[in-house]
Fold this sequence. Notes:
The complex is a heterodimer.
Chain A: H1 2-20, H2 27-54, E1 60-70, E2 73-81, H3 83-106, H4 113-132, H5 136-154, H6 161-192, H7 204-212, H8 214-231, H9 240-243, H10 249-259, H11 263-270, H12 272-275, H13 279-302, H14 306-326, H15 330-349, H16 354-365, H17 379-390, H18 395-412, H19 420-438, H20 447-466, H21 471-490, H22 497-525, H23 541-554, H24 562-572, H25 578-603
Antiparallel strand pairs in A: 1-2
Chain B: H1 8-18, H2 42-53, H3 61-69, H4 75-86, H5 91-99, H6 116-122, H7 126-142, H8 158-167, H9 177-184, H10 190-197, H11 204-213, H12 216-227, H13 240-259, H14 285-313, E1 326-330, H15 335-345, E2 350-354, E3 362-365, E4 373-375, E5 384-389, H16 411-431, E6 451-452, E7 462-463, E8 466-468, H17 472-486, E9 495-502, H18 525-536, H19 538-546, E10 556-563, E11 568-571, H20 582-604, H21 616-628, E12 644-648, E13 656-657, E14 662-666, H22 678-701, E15 714-717, E16 721-724, H23 736-739, E17 748-752, H24 755-763, H25 766-773, E18 778-782, E19 789-793, E20 796-799, E21 808-810, H26 813-819, H27 828-831, E22 839-841
Helix pairs in contact in B: 1-11, 4-14, 7-13, 9-13, 10-13, 15-20, 17-19, 20-21
Amino acid sequence: MEIIVYILFLLPILTFFGSLFFKNHQEYGLSRMATGMSVLQVIGYLSLGFHSILNANATKAVHLITAYDRNEFRFGVDFFIDKLSITYGLVAFFILAIIAKVSKTYMHRESGYKRFYNHLLLFAIGLNLVCLSGNFETFFLGWEIVGIASFLLISFYRDRYLPVRNAMKVLSFYRMGDVALIAGVWFIHHMMHTNIMFTDLNSDKFALALGAHPNYVWSIALLFLFAAAVKSAQFPFSSWLPRAMEGPTVSSAIFYGSLSVHLGVFLLIRTMPIWQAVDSFRYVLAALGLISFLLGSLAGSVQSTAKTQIAYSSLAQIGIIFVELALGLPILALVHFALNAMLRVYQLLVSPSIMSYLIHQQFFNYDPNKRYMLSRLPKKLRNTLYILSVKEFNLDYFWYHGIWKQLKKLGGAFVFMGNKYILAILSLSGVAITLGLYFGMDRFEMRYISILFALLSLILIFYAWTNRRSALMSWTAIAISQLFFMLSIVQNHTFDTEQVLIYFSGEIGAFVLGWYALYKVQSVENSVNLNSFHGHVYEHPKYALAFLVSALTMIGFPISPTFLGYDLLFTEIEANQTILLIISSITFIVLELAVLRIYARVFLGQHVKTYHEIAFRSS
Amino acid sequence: MGKHSFDIEHTLHDIMHYLPSQMTLKDFVHHNSLHAFQSMKFYEGIFRASKIFGFKVSLQLSEFRELYKKGRITESVIERIIIERKGEDNLEAWVKKVLYQEYDSSIPSRIGLLRANWKKQYRLDLDTLTHPLLYRILASYLDQGISVWEFPEQTDSFLGAIRSMEQNSAASFFRTAEAKALLMKDGVRIEDLLKRIVGDESYYEQYLYDLCFSHRGWSGIVAVLTENPGALLLKRPITLQELCIFELLLEMDALHAELGSDWKPIASFTQDAPVDILAETSLTELDEVIKIWQDAFEWNYYDQVVTGIQGNLKRTRTVHDKTSFQAIFCIDERECSLRRHLELVAPDAITFGAPGFFGVEFYYLQQDTKFLDKLCPAPVTPKYLIKEMAAHVHHDSDIMFSPSSHKLETNIFSTFYLGALALPKLLQGIFMPKMTPSISDAFSHMTKGSALTIENKAVTDREYDLQVGFTIEEMTVRVENFLRGIGLIANFADLIYVVAHGSSSANNPHHGAHDCGACSGRPGATNARVFAGMANHPKVRQELALKGIIIPSTTVFVPAMHDTAADTIGYYDENGIPANQLHTHQEVKQAFEDALDLNAKERSRRFASISTKQPIKKIRKAIYDRSVELFEPRPELGHGTNSLCIVGRRELTRGLFLDRRAFLNSYDYRTDLEGKYLANVMAPIGVVCGGINLEYYFSRVDNVKLGCGTKLPHNVVGLIGVANSSDGDLRPGLPWQMIEPHDPVRLLVVVEHFPEVVLKVIQSNPAMYEWYKNEWVHIMALHPDTQEFFYYRNGHFLHYHAEALDAKAVASVHHLFEEAPEMMTNAITHATFENLPIYQIENNIQWKS
């Protein structure tokens, strides 16, 4: 049993690394490997399923490794197997197997053939981790990998403008969800004073703690709902889903038709023990689901393109699944998930067919007098609903102009940070304080110093995010911001060299590598500003890759110990430091956007050199 | 500009001329992507287009040089071209330039320079602010059946419909009251909006170009609908003028919403003088170098063709004394190989080629359907209607495409049962692909055994303002013209097959591009049946006899259709074959099966997923499967690689391996020494074959601007076109998967006739002459007596000396297909080597002449 879990965990990871060694034209091998892995995973999950049925629905916790364990903080990779993980895993790898198989011919001779499979396998790792996860840390790991894989696949056609822009757009939503999730886990941590396992969620001790902290429970449940609503494109986040359909149809099918978009459902089922007893929360959940269903269905009914129609229909169903969960029907929700996932995968995969099929239908069946039910509404109501539905209830506008643009305006106020001397002074003083603390200098005993550092970190990251000039300046500002982020938190506590080292182990390398990549591109291309997309990946694919790796490391992607450092630092924020928590959360949201914005603007989008084919911006 | 004052009608007319003119995807008709520049010489036209619109119009210099290094372009041809173009004295200097000199090959564009000032001045990206909503509204309005909720207001114009919406609504498409108020004002004029947004009249024209060409896909389809509202099944009137007004309103709306009233018209802060978009451009040295490369690339291939045909005519041949059957195919270059294989398996058969509408033009009304289909070349407007009757139409639907899963009232329920069905459907689609109602089936266009209203009962019998069927006289004219055109006026075999073609493919919005180009992108089976019906009509035969064409009463024309993707064939009206011919018919069917096996094998060499070395029946099955496979973006390769058009007797090409690259039009100069029928034959060559060729050319050299890019992310919009994702512009042109094997060379037309006759014929019609005069298509005359080639240039046919390249002989086509190289990547420097040289096929030269 345990060995199966280990194999399930390892197989996608090994396959992913294996896939990196292929060449683009080795199509057969790539697809065979991905398909084979997925089939084996299906068998693995099936055997877990049988085992569970034979043992009267037994659940199973498996511990893999403890990466860190000190004070109240323990970070381990743990697995938890129950109906949910088995069902989701089974559906996921079944669909993955299909996608991996059909992509063999579908993606044939695509210049990004290998890249597609790399991304798909990265997605498989993330999804698999989410399914198997036995604690929030492992869960988050998978969740974040899925998010990055999404970003990479939306911007798969990286030489066009819209895929890159929409990838950034989707990322900005995902990131809010990620941080909500981290904040939720932070609350749990402070409620329980330890990291908890999913097995603990049903324990008496946990139930007692929940009873003792009703406010915590509400905050936790709302934060998780926020994360789930983002990932599942529920109201008011729905507008990202149709815009995510930028990659090859096969990747849109698997991500946005089915597996990625249902992760919110997974999260809610997994955290049910936390919120199921809170009736008022269940009303909120049901209301959110219902609103999403109504708006999604309405927007879906006016969509005049194949893929956006499916996107809205899919998220409308997820709204109903949320309602089912609110009603306490997780099994129904799981069935609904599986069927919705299958249906939308199918619909997306065959969406190009509707051109000939529906035209043919019109030839035989068109009736000019046949009108849709809603067309019979009173005229004014009808037109109002129709216009709102076409405009997607202004959701895209709301987020883009109402939220992000305002934040960017705010960020624009810190343009003065874009000064070599300011950055030099800041970095030197940051390093000096760090060294001072290391050599035993007394901490500043005032809380507001901590907040001051956090604010400085925030300002720097805002500058980096909105800077339109030098990419190198932004990159440097990000690194200094990270330094002050760390300082703001170690201010709280004893200076723990180990924590700081873990945190910086990846950061420093990432900074240097990223700086080098940008510097090299800049020296060849003269200037690398952030005012527009440059598409330098066309001529500098190696630097692009190097920068991507360093960017991912910088934002705490699990390729260096830094990702552990982030968790550590977050946990160090005290329960009563709400302001620090809020500032840190915003920093954390913007950090990823700022870092990947540099990657997108320098390396992706329409190439600035026009000697080869370049698609129009609008295409 | 500045020379004349702004004239909106004039400007919009010009803009429409330069916009892509691709119809909605259901009516895919190939055309020259740069048709607007066709009044200029080819090179001047394409370089002008490039400098105005930023298109890439040839391969890259580096690609040409790579092809030279790899031997695809030879030094001797380059030198010959340089001498022709630059003179002997400058040879050395130009060789250096062509081969080694560095050039800045970036491609600037005049479009968008003015509108870019919004961003510079106000940091406003108007495209991002207006385009997504504009596309959504346009798509919702024009939608032909995707959305379950149709656009609620329908009036006689687009703006009228939008006004009705706004009038009776609590919400608005606009963000500000100002824009809405302007819309509601009756008679809002473009000039008024331009005055507010642009300010200075001398910039109006440039601004409108910027506007329309910032989304040339949508502007293009609206321009097409302006001129041809009937292109949509569901009536949705719209004009380009309305689009401009609405878009300007959206721009004004965005400016108001973002900046309040605190913004100035663009002319007041732009630093640049107005640009005359269409102004002359000058040729650069790089352009001259590209000309030489392109010519060399083309002639390196054409020389093989010239010597190949000359060599072929010298071969000795076995003559059969009886013709077992005759078969007339479409001119389409995909039939080139099937004819070759048919002649191999039935050496005593004779094949012909002609445009696949077989000279009969009409609208077709399939039984139980509500719309007409035009079945003839796109420029022709038929006056006749052919109705299908007495058919047992099985019209199946596919539950998986039911709109119920998108409807508010049913989507919960249907998600459960459709979701449960999706799994087996998907597995079936992957592991057992078969024909289903959602696959576009070439044979579903007409039911076998149905009746067609070929003969007109009375001239008063009219429907849809069209005459139902043809009179005897009208039939006779068409049959006579057609038969004389292909030179079949005597020696009729007992069975003459009229083989149309269509193409079945799954999950393919561009399926129309694979059907018959001479039938407006439809399967041609109906035309084959109508033609055969006419030619079999006893009264028509009587009339024909009076005109000197005596068709024996034993002769029967048998209609059939070849599915070019599945490599299957279907026969129609077989009950018209007399009993004593049925045996022969069975033999012919077998011959077709054998030829289709070979054809499948030939095609399979370009498909990586099919091994050419398998047993031939397995290959045939694999080829069939491709036509019904959901996840096969290349069910067939369409017209990819087309590069020749040969108008003449089959003797020129019989036994020659032309690698499916030649349009073959039968024509016998001996029956038409004056060239009286040649004009008829030549009329469609430029527009159909030249159009196909140039669309492939431009989609190949700039697949992302003039083609529609890779198919994989395409999203079907409103059943009228495809776009990438939700926010993207419509994308006209051909997808990458169709043009991969194509060498971007212009079409070479070879006509077997006396040069002076050919010259007279092509000059007889200015529209036809333009193709050759302006060099968008090459033309050569093959002198029937001397068998020498004459190349047309600047109004004359001049004797042409090709490099002597003897076509190699090959004994076994199997060997040829099995050993052919396969491209590693689809870059031209790899892909072109998949195209084989011309071979003589040893056992394939017998016939009765």
